[in-house]
Structure formats: structure tokens, C-alpha cells
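User: Quick sanity check before I run a bigger batch. Here is a single chain. Can you write out its predicted 3D structure?
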Amino acid sequence: MDQGQPGATAVRCAVCGVTHTRVLYKKFGYQIGRCVRCGLVYVNPRPPQDAILARYNSEYFWKEYLPAVGIADGQFDLAQFDARNAPLLGLLGPAKGRRLLEIGCGAGFFLKSAERRGWQVAGVEVSDAAAQFARERLDLNVRVRSAETLAFPAAAFDVVAMFDTIEHLFDPRVALSEISRVLAPGGLLLVATPNFDALSRWLLGPSWAVLSPLEHMYYFQEHTLRRLLETCGFDRIQFIREHAAWTPQQTMNFMYTHCPGGVRARLAALINRVGGYRLAREVQRIGRHDILLCLSRRADAVLT
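Assistant: Done. Predicted structure follows.
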């Protein structure tokens, strides 16, 4: 196997355990390949861990992360975040007396919306700057931990949420095993991650910004995420394709490209303008939207 950049190491497939992948993309000096046995797409060989973690520094948090969620100069309106997060919280049922953990919680705005709705909340985050913001600005219980090393008692939570996190993990299988451990019987797991089958990828090609091997280690499709969850002890797996809260921009973000002035990006933007909501809903229906949104349950859940 071509080892690519210095320090890159071969990685076993998180689903089936083999190391052989067929290269799909070469980007920024690293390879994104598809497992020859089960089809999982992931970065292989993998960049050095310190190079990956260096991405989540204070400068990234203040200059990229916060502007991306709509915050300028550290100022925010919690009511706006409550409205943005309400559809996701609505998938989880009533809050009364229930406990929610968010993994990769960033600055903590989803957690804060959940708390304001009545949930008992906690979060983990690898970015020191983000965790500090969540604690000091939002008064949240957020710890600096990795998803693979959760320091909570067994059955401590009724719900675990991960938004745009599982694709960043070094070992999603270990992380999901930890999540299963800290979930109470019947506990729910809500995951959102980029969809490798998205129309955006087909139209934007290699310039699609999701293809970023120093950030995104894994690229899931419905069938590979389902199989990973099943092998880690989750069942009742449901993919939510048609989400009324998703705008055309959220369904097909053709501006999320490393080549915004390219022919592909201009063509994609034209398709989006012409198609509008009708096209967005059809793209959702056939599973080609940008976001895989998945709700599952611990396999030992009590049947009702």
C-alpha cells in the first residue's frame, strides 16, 4: 500500500477490520479509499494524529467554527439557536427527567437549547477553546475528552447525540462501544454526518469540501453507517431523509467546495437555483441529501 505522506499509517476498516482499500480520491497528499470487503470509505493511510489534532486549535475555533455557526464577535442570541435546534430535539421525545450527552459539542449551543427545553445535559469536546466557551459563556458541563474515552458511569444517559462528529473520530467502533456503555437500557443515539452519496459530491467532484482528509477520517453511506451501528450493539436504525427544516441550501450545499469559481460549482449553483424546494425534497426522498441523519437504539432496549 502506498503510504503517502511521511508519518501516514495503514488503518483497519472500522466495520470489517481489513486494511485493503481501493483509492477513490487523492487530496492534499492523502488517499481516500473504499474498503474492498464492506464498502466503507475512509482515509487510508491516515495522517499522523498530531497533524489532525492541530486543526482544532483556538484560532480555528474563533475564526472558522464560530463564524460558521453564525456568531460574530462572540455575540449570540440563544432564541435563534433554540429555533434552529427544535426540529432535532423534537426527534428525541419529551425532556422531563431525561439526561442527554452530546459528543463533539463544540461551543455548546445544541446542548444549551436542550437544557432550556428541560433536559439534564453534559458534553465532551476535544477543543480546549470550545469547551471553555461552553463552560464560561453558556454555563454548561462540558469536559475535554475524546469520544473513545468517555469518563461517565454506565447507563448515565438516556440520549447521546453526535452532529458532524463521527466522521472526525480516530476509532468510531470504540466510540460507539463507549456510547452504548453510557446509555441506559432503551437509550437513543442521534447521529448526523456528511452523506457520501450526496448529490453535492457527484456534482462538485473532488473539490467537494467534505473530502478533507486532515479533518474527516470517515465518509459514510446509509448502508455502511447501518452496518457499523449494528456491529456495535444498536438496532431500530432509522434514517431520516425528509426533514422539513432542511432548506435547499442545507440539502444541497453547492457552495461547500474548495473550488468555488470552478465550472462544477457554477453548474451546481444553477441547478440549485432552478430546482429550489421541489428539487431539494426529491433529493431528500432518494437519499442524495448532504446530511445523513440517523436515529438508533441500544439493542437491549425493552420492547414496548
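The chain has a mean pLDDT of 92.

User: Great, the batch can go ahead then.
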